[in-house]
């Protein structure tokens, strides 16, 4: 938990499996990361494809909605 009740999901395992059986590995995703500048700090975030994969690990209702929105964003960027 961060300030102001902000929550951040952190992948602590080297690999996890999605509900569909696809393996998500930190070492494979790290080279595809994106760096985002936020005020005075640069933050590394997963690529859209990797973020979608991580959302498929738990596949809760909220994750499925996030996946839908992330796919729209990915299409808009293409």
Descriptive terms for the model:
78 residues; alpha+beta; globular
The residue-averaged pLDDT reads 89
**Helical percentage:** 40-55%
Q: Biggest β-sheet, characterized?
A: 2 strands, antiparallel
Order of helices and strands: EEHEEHH
End-to-end distance = 33 Å
Strand content: 15-25%
Number of helical elements? 3
What gross morphology would you assign?
globular
Radius of gyration: 13 Å
Can you list the strand order of the major beta sheet? 1-2
Total number of strands:
4
Structural class: alpha+beta
Count of spatially separate domains:
1
Describe the structure.
With 78 residues, the chain is an alpha+beta fold. It has one domain (3-77). It has three helices and four strands; from the N terminus they run E-E-H-E-E-H-H. It has helices at 26-29, 48-58, 61-77, and strands at 15-17, 23-25, 34-38, 41-45. Strands 1-2 form a two-stranded antiparallel sheet. It has a two-stranded antiparallel ribbon with strand order 3-4. Strand 1 (15-17) and strand 2 form a beta hairpin. The longest helix has 17 residues, at 61-77. The radius of gyration is 13 Å and the shape is globular. The N and C termini lie far apart (33 Å). 5% of the residues are buried.
């Amino acid at each position: 938990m961060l300030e102001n009740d902000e929550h951040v999901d952190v992948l602590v395992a080297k690999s996890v499996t999605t509900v569909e059986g696809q393996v998500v590995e930190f070492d494979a995703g790290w080279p595809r990361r994106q760096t985002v500048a936020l005020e005075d700090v640069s933050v590394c975030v997963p690529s859209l494809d990797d973020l979608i994969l991580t959302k498929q690990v738990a596949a809760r209702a909220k994750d499925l909605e996030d996946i839908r929105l992330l796919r729209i964003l990915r299409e808009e960027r293409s």
